[in-house]
Amino acid sequence: MARAAKKSDESEELDPFDPRRNPHLEGHEAAERTVLEAWNSGRFPHAWLICGPRGIGKATFAFRLARFVMESGGAGRGGAGLFGAEPLAADGLAISPESRTYHLVSSGGHPDLRVLTRGMPNEDNKPTPTIINVYQTRRVVDFTYQTSAISDWRVVIVDPADDFNTASANAILKALEEPPSKALFLLLSHSPGGLLPTIRSRCRKLQMAALPDETVAMLIRRYRPEVGAEEAGGLARLAEGSVGRALDYHAAGGLALFREMAGVLARPKDPDMERVSALADRTAMKGKEAAYGALVDLSDWWFKRLIRGLALGAPPSPLDELDAAALAAFQKLGDLEAVMAMRDEALHRLGQADPPANLDRRQLIFALFGDIQRRARAL
Question: Which of 18, 47, 95, 327 is deepest in the core (most CB within 10 A)?
Fold first, then answer.
């Protein structure tokens, strides 16, 4: 699960960005209105497929909706409210952070909420770091058929459903096809096209959009007050509407990492080897896995932005002088096909740090800029 709740003692400061306890939801008013209209109509779907890019707030939205449903008792689906009263109408999903429901969800202890995510233990008590395993999925499905403990509803959050394998996807499908009464499934997905068509067809799709740059910059400063306005604006542009990605970039080195990369790219035919070495030191040393991952993402973002500009004949707006120099240098090469090949080679080369190749990251970075130099000089 993105930014899952961390165990901590009372003296440890809790991360306000954790979706379990984050009371804020910015920029997704349309999605909230869509859910509320369904709730107030008395025809509330038993399953929602919440889609959108990584890091835009899908998990925060899911926990917000889960808290609302469990707090609101018997309202929705046309059911009666407490003690047989009329269905309860609502004009927002937010509930009080002082409520019992809010505290139980924040602590991870609400008995009527389950979260499925990768890394959970299987039947042999071994974690499955790359998938949502079938053992945990079956346990959650069984939970939905049980009597709720303190709420009228049982809620399941799957974060993300993209991590199902075939067995676990088929296990959740059983409950989606024959949904128990007052069981709600919230499936998050970054790439819904990769899910089983039968899962997609049994959920109501809720598309959430990337956030505007100004909203991302505002949220960066809310969650990381030490970040200045200029840096927040730069991170927002790099993150393309994802506050989660922006915060990850900040943790991995922020704009300094991007500037190191742009400084090397500014000389495609004759890379500055001191800069290449500095970039490798920043991203390839032991313990720098997050920085290396950010380098991979930023390389992809930079080349895609350049390729769009070359294809449309409209150069992209640079972030700063180093970025402007790098963009200008590649535009002078004047060969869209060659630049596209450079991007493909860059992603392939950097990806060789992962299994099964597991090659040395430092050597891969030097090889990457050697590949770029070779292609640039051939033009």
Answer: 327
- Which token pair is 356? 């099964």
Of residues 25, 114, 7, 37, the one with CA closest to residue 64: 25
Cα 151 to Cα 252: distance, rounded to the nearest angstrom = 41
Q: Please compute, for residue 91, the number of CA atoms within 13 A of its CA located in the half-sphere on the CB side.
A: 0
DSSP 199: H
Instruction: Encode pLDDT of 337-373 as tens digits.
Output: 999 999 999 999 999 999 888 999 999 999 999 999 9
- DSSP assignment of 252-281 equals HTHHHHHHHHHHHHT-SSS--HHHHHHHHH
Length of the chain: 379
Residues 190, 179: Cα–Cα separation, whole Å: 24
Distances in Å between the Cα of 70 and the Cα atoms of 93, 179, 187, 335, 354 are 11, 17, 17, 57, 41
pTM of the model: 0.84
The string of pLDDT tens digits covering residues 201-214 is 999 999 999 999 99
**Sheet of 47-51, strands arranged across:** 113-116, 154-158, 183-189, 47-51, 204-207
Residues 247, 224 contacting (CB under 8 angstroms): yes
Residue 262 near residue 272 (C-beta atoms within 8 A): no
Burial of 109 (0-12, 13-18, 19+ CB in 10 A): exposed
Spell out the residues 6+ positions from residue 137 whose beta carbon is closer than 8 angstroms to its own. Answer: 116, 164, 167, 168, 171, 172
In the chain, the amino acid numbered 119 is G
Nearest of 180, 186, 169, 195 to residue 144 by alpha carbon: 180
pLDDT, tens only, 213-270: 999 999 999 999 999 999 999 999 999 999 999 999 999 998 999 999 999 999 999 9
- Per-residue buried b or exposed e for 122-143, using 16+ beta carbons within 10 Å of the residue's own CB: eeeeeebeebbbbbbbbebbeb
Q: Position 214: which residue type?
A: E
Query: Are 151 and 116 spatial neighbours (Cβ–Cβ below 8 Å)?
Result: no
Alpha-helical regions (H) of the chain: 29-41, 58-71, 100-107, 134-144, 166-177, 197-201, 213-223, 229-239, 243-252, 254-265, 273-283, 289-312, 321-333, 336-351, 361-378
| Rounded distance between C-alpha atoms, residue 85 and residue 70, angstroms | 17
